[in-house]
Amino acid sequence: MKSWNVGIVLFDQVEILDFTGPYEVFGLAVHDRYQPTERSLFNVTTISESGNLVIAENNLKVTPDYSLATAPAYDLLVIPGGPGVRKALLNEALVNWVRARSGDTPWITSVCTGSLLLAQTGLLDGKKATTHIDSIDWMRTQYPAIDVIDDVKYVDEDRIVTSAGVANGMHMSLHMVDRLAGREVAQDVSHIMQFETDFDEYAC
After folding, report:
1. Rounded distance, CA 131 to CA 181, Å?
2. Are 77 and 98 a contacting pair, CB within 8 Å?
3. pTM of the predicted model, to two decimals?
4. For the CA atoms of 43, 30, 179, 165, what is the dihedral angle to 10 degrees?
């Protein structure tokens, strides 16, 4: 079974569970768990604009693995949300980087209000998407070219997948493990995390 490189974008005031949830899901996905042949299926690293220390919500300090300039190629990107998204939307370097990387990154995902950053790039125009419940109306108003869906855990538009708020990022990440590595691996991660999900409960 092949493996995939996952990049999680970080910025100041990023919501903690928005990035740690997906990090844990992808990090726990392995082939042949508890066997001598066990190996990780997803190599997860983090990125920020400068690569310097990021201060997440509640003053959690995180040192990213890469800057935008040094980040390697990825198979899948995760754009988390949080209060810091408001500032990130105005960060042309970050918005342009996500837009540019979408051209050679097979899968682009977002958690919570991270979908607003994707919306800012134009990548969601003409597509269905979701976001945090408290940002649904704002997203509809600010980005009328997007078909904003509420009351779902996540929306799968093939290579772009957006999730609703916070913990729903774990449902979305399990869905991506299911898509890429298969149902057996995804169910194993769900079991290890003791986090139940319905693999067929989403909008597309």
Report:
1. 25
2. yes
3. 0.95
4. -70
At 155 the three-state DSSP class reads: strand
Give the chain's domains with CATH numbers.
Answer: 4-111+170-193 (3.40.50.880)
Sort residue 34 into left (φ over 0), alpha (ψ -120 to 50) or beta: left
Tell me if 166 sits within 8 A of 146, measured CB to CB: no
Contacts of 174 (CB under 8 A, 6+ apart): 25, 186, 189, 190, 195, 197, 199
Cα distance between residue 8 and residue 40, in whole Å: 17
Spatial distance between the Cα atoms of 66 and 10, rounded to a whole number of angstroms: 10
Q: What is the pLDDT of residues 97-144, one digit of tens each?
A: 999 999 999 999 999 999 999 999 999 999 999 999 999 999 999 999
Angle in degrees, CA 201, 20, 62, rounded to 5: 160
Closest CA to 69 of 43, 47, 46, 45: 47
Are the CB atoms for 39 and 30 separated by under 8 Å? Answer: yes
| H helix runs in the chain, sequence order | 16-28, 85-88, 92-101, 114-121, 136-142, 168-181, 183-193
